[in-house]
Amino acid sequence: MNDREWEALCDGCGKCCLQKFIEDDEGQGESTAEINAGEEIHYTNIVCHLLNTKSCQCTQYQKRTQLVPDCVKLTKDNLKDIFFMPQSCSYRRVYEGRGLPSWHPLLHKGKKSAMHKAGMSVRGKTVPDDEHSLDDFEDYIVSWPLKDLD
Prior knowledge:
- By secondary structure, the protein is α+β, with helices and mostly antiparallel strands.
- The chain is built from four helices and seven strands.
- The chain has one domain.
- 15% of the residues lie in helices and 16% in strands.
- 25% of the residues are buried.
């Protein structure tokens, strides 16, 4: 698979741009690089300020990992470590052998309308991280990113 084909696997939902936190047994939410036994991942509706929430595309895609050090570039080599991606993530689905979801843009001539209509993107559901304090992340915890439609 070449780079263009790899990039096309991304459904462009924007869920990877949501702030996510791990809650441990003591109830403390914090950013982490792995999940351990007794911990739970929580998604918030706080999204990276670089994301255009209408198109669900990064406005600085080529420089995103330089501008946002916590931004993770998904590659074929790090897919085994994508525990933080939602079940609906096309990369995760393909890695787990579940294939592309019926709403994926590749199955709709490259159009994202089926994805948006199915409610699988962040469009209209988020607040920007540069306007909201991550100290109060508990107030922004949401469950909609966990939704996985086939």
